[in-house]
């Protein structure tokens, strides 16, 4: 009888083309298009900033600086102004983005550099830029780290005969050699930032879309009363609906997850904040894949249990939707908490329903999940699911609730 109830639920979903399209196909297509579009837009924005020619004004440029700057061969356009020129207009242009940077040397700059032992402080080079403008921020960074830095080394070389005389030691002369990192773990850290949040929300929304109609919808239409009058045990009916909803939720989440993976080549910089993530370096062992699957299945079980319990207590679909909204907020808070933090740190935190599961997914994707953390998370989610199923089956035996009396 249990199989008959499950088949009935699945047939109801998969025989309705509009329901299949709205529950499985449309969300996956929207996710793929949305993330691919966002990734492409972000890449284009970065390329635009990199290719932009920085517009700089330099005031009181020391003798020889103009030739020095020209020899740097950078994509920077420099206009030189004298000490009496008004810079207020230039600052206003920086505010609105028409000018990227103003560099101001002190008057008598070279004399102060050469007479360094006669002054309490070295001469200053001031920069004025707009940190809210990408062009301005990037332009200042390039100008300071290349032109001004190299110019300072030339002045030190002139002062001491060799610039190395003014340097006691170098730090990380070859920065690439200083980076010691597991490439697989680094790439996993990238996708573990936002993917656990997306997985939790997709799993819940996938179950919610159909779950409300599965129970509350049937109560509203009156078909639930007919089903309860059959010889089947009410516990069997309840389990059949929960299992059927779980299968549908897993299929819905799987199609959405495939869409996310398909969009990763374009959206990796959106999901991770860095475009250099090496997806090919991410390789899960069979044990890690089983752990991830178990965590996701037990998380689905919690979501299905919550949605089913709320739906069975509600009189109508509208009422069920109203009751589920706060639960959806709790799910989103638990999911977002792992986005802006490191997730669960202590072992007991993995026992917190939903939050512990999302944290376990995050740790698994980052290749940091321990066996104890996995067991605590999975067992806690399983126990929570069993409690919810018990409450649902008890409610199915409550005539007043089931018949909307």
From TrEMBL:
Listed transmembrane segments: 20-38, 194-216, 237-264, 284-310, 322-341, 347-367, 374-396
Keywords: Membrane, Transmembrane, Transmembrane helix
Pfam families: ABC2_membrane_2 (PF12679)
Cellular component per GO, a single term: plasma membrane
A molecular-function term among this protein's GO annotations: ABC-type transporter activity
Domain of life assignment: Bacteria
UniProt cross-references to PANTHER family, sorted A to Z: ABC TRANSPORTER PERMEASE, ABC TRANSPORTER PERMEASE PROTEIN NATB
Name recorded for this polypeptide: ABC transporter permease
């Amino acid at each position: 009888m249990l199989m008959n109830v499950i088949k009935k639920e699945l047939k109801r979903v998969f025989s309705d083309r509009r329901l299949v399209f709205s529950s499985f196909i449309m969300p996956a297509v929207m996710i793929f298009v949305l993330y691919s579009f966002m990734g492409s837009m972000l890449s284009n924005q970065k390329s635009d900033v990199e290719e932009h020619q920085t517009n700089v004004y330099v005031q009181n440029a020391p003798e020889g600086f103009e030739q020095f700057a020209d020899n740097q061969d950078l994509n920077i356009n420099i206009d030189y102004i004298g000490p009496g020129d008004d810079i207020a207009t230039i600052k206003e242009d920086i505010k609105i983005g028409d000018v990227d940077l103003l560099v101001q040397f002190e008057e008598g700059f070279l004399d102060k550099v050469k007479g360094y032992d006669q002054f309490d402080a070295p001469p200053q080079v001031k920069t004025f830029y707009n940190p809210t403008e990408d062009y301005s921020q990037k332009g200042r960074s390039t100008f300071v780290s290349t032109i001004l830095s190299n110019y300072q080394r030339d002045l030190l070389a002139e002062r001491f005969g060799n610039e190395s005389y003014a340097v006691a030691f170098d730090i990380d002369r070859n920065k690439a050699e200083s980076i010691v990192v597991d490439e697989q773990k680094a790439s996993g850290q990238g996708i573990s930032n936002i993917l656990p949040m997306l997985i939790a929300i997709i799993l819940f929304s996938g179950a919610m879309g159909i779950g409300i109609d599965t129970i509350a919808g049937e109560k509203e239409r009156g078909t639930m009363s007919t089903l309860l009058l059959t010889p089947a045990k009410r516990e069997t009916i309840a389990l059949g609906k929960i299992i059927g909803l779980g299968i549908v939720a897993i299929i819905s989440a799987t199609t959405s997850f495939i869409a996310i993976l398909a969009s990763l080549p374009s959206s990796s910089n959106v999901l991770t904040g860095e475009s250099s993530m090496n997806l090919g370096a991410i390789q899960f062992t069979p044990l890690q894949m089983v752990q991830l699957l178990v965590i996701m299945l037990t998380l689905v079980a919690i979501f299905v249990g919550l949605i089913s319990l709320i739906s069975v207590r509600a009189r109508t679909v509208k009422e069920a939707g109203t009751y589920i909204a706060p639960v959806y907020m709790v799910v989103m808070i638990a999911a977002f908490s792992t986005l802006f933090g490191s997730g669960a740190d202590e072992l007991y935190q993995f026992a917190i329903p939903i939050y512990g599961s999302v944290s376990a997914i995050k740790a698994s994707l980052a290749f940091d999940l321990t066996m104890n953390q996995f067991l605590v998370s999975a067992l806690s989610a399983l126990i929570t699911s069993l409690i919810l199923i018990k409450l649902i089956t008890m409610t199915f035996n409550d005539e007043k609730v089931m018949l909307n009396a």
